[in-house]
Structure formats: C-alpha cells, structure tokens
Design brief:
Layout lengths: L4 H11 L4 H19 L6 H16 L8 H7 L4 H14 L7 H12 L4 H14 L5 H11 L3
Length: 149
C-alpha cells in the first residue's frame, strides 16, 4: 500500500493493547518520533503524507499533535496530492478561529482562483469547514465567481 510497514505495525500494536495505559505509552512514543521526523529538513511528500496520517491517528486517540498543524498548512502550498492531504488534515486539525487560519486563507484564495478544478474543490471543501465571519469578505467574491461556470 501507500503507508509504511512501521505505520502498519503501529496500528497493529495499538489494536492489540489490553489497556488505555499501554495505548497511551505507544502513542506518546509515536508522538516523540513524529516530532523528531518533522523537525528534519527535506521530507519527501510521501513521508509527509504518512506523518500527517500518524498525527491524525494520535489526535483521534486523544493526544495532542499540535506540533504537526503547521506542517499540514505547509502541505497546502505543495503539488496537488500534497495539497489535498494538507487541506484534509487542516480540516481535521484546525477550527475556524485557529491562529494558523491566517496562513491558510491566502492559500485558499489562490486555490479558489486556480484553473485546476481539483485545487478549487479542495479549497471549497475547506472554506465550508474553516472560514469564520472575519474571513468571509476575503473569500466570498471568489466563491460567488465560481457559482457562474
């Protein structure tokens, strides 16, 4: 598949735990590894995708993976596949009033004006989930323009 053997082993080991304490220990170790991996320069797109999935998994299990949020926003600046993963993880990680939304709004504006309909769709999906009242004036003209196709 698309994910590494290490990720498969992580999911398997969590599934086999007998207690919440065992699960927490595994996830805390995983978070430490993620922090180490994400601090390295020049991470490939494939690895970054996996790291974001791991961070989402850690958050789903109730642990803080806020160190990965900025990397999710950075992914929205990359190629189409990375951009879609970046938007997806931003939708899962961020909320309307999150401080990183200021960084994401510029990317949304650019993607809403893109000639590539997949980029536009990814941005529109995030607009529905993440745009707050203060951001509406910056986004609404672009969204209204898309209504006439």
């Amino acid at each position: 598949g698309h994910l590494s053997k290490e990720f498969f082993e992580l999911v398997k080991s969590i599934g086999e735990t007998r207690s919440k304490q065992e699960e927490d220990k595994i996830i805390i170790t995983e978070i430490a590894l993620l922090k180490q991996h994400l601090s390295q320069p020049g991470i490939s797109a494939k690895k970054m995708k996996e790291y974001m999935v791991r961070a989402v998994y850690a958050e789903m299990l109730g642990h803080d993976a806020s160190f990965a949020y900025i990397h999710a926003v950075k992914l929205t600046h990359e190629n189409l596949l990375a951009k879609r993963i970046g938007y997806l993880t931003c939708n899962l990680f961020l909320h309307r009033d999150h401080e990183l939304m200021l960084l994401l709004i510029n990317t949304m504006q650019r993607d809403l004006q893109s000639a590539n309909h997949l980029e536009v769709c990814a941005a529109l999906t995030s607009v529905c989930r993440l745009v707050n009242v203060e951001m509406i004036p910056a986004i609404s003209p672009l969204v209204f323009k898309l209504l006439s196709h």
